Amino acid sequence: MISKQPVIFVIGKLLSDHLESVSEKFLDKVKFVFVGTDENELKKYSAGKKLIVNEGIRDFYVDDSILFLNQKEFDNLQKAILFLLGESASMIVLFTAEDPLALSVTPMLVRASEETGTDPSFIAVKLQSHEDKVTTENLEFFLKNGYRLYMLEKNNGDFLLKANEEKSKNELMMSVINSLVKSFKQAELKNL
Length: 192
Description:
- This protein has one domain: Rossmann fold (3-Layer(aba) Sandwich).
- 39% of the residues lie in helices and 24% in strands.
- The chain is built from 6 helices and 8 strands; from the N terminus they run E-H-E-H-E-E-H-E-H-E-H-E-E-H.
- It has helices at residues 13-22, 39-43, 77-85, 100-116, 133-145, 171-190; strands at 7-11, 31-36, 49-53, 60-62, 90-96, 119-126, 149-155, 158-163.
- Strands 4-3-2-1-5-6-7-8 form an 8-stranded mixed β-sheet, sandwiched between helices.
- Helix 2 links the parallel strand 2 (31-36) and strand 3 (49-53).
- Helix 1 crosses helix 6, helix 3 (77-85) crosses helix 4 (100-116) and helix 4 (100-116) runs parallel beside helix 5 (133-145).
């Protein structure tokens, strides 16, 4: 039976490392999908399913944690995303604004949410103070198309949360954001 729990798509190694460290707190509430390009990197995340996408986005597969499905059962990445989304009523997508993989995958997640009627929330984590081309394009995509975007921006050792709409933030999403910030701060303390 397909779960109707919210799905959290975590794009990229940095955020996956942080979310894996706090995932136990959410395991009974959500399904995690870690998205990346390196199979060996993704194998270390135990909290959820993995979507491995090669750098050209033309090739992908879902690892064997998904009922031993063969990659041939999906003829494109969009179908794999729809499968992973299942019958979930909502999804949260976490990505770093500077990540080119996010620029390629988030539009597919948007399309999947529109196709299934899933309520999406996108959380961009901006760790660099300057804006490069990828960051600009990532953010413009959401703002131009009016999708719900929350920006968690690192500023002088602290994190600021901005949103492109005034809708009330849901409790789960705020809990994920707070846990992510706490994980970042703990990692910084360890590196001092």
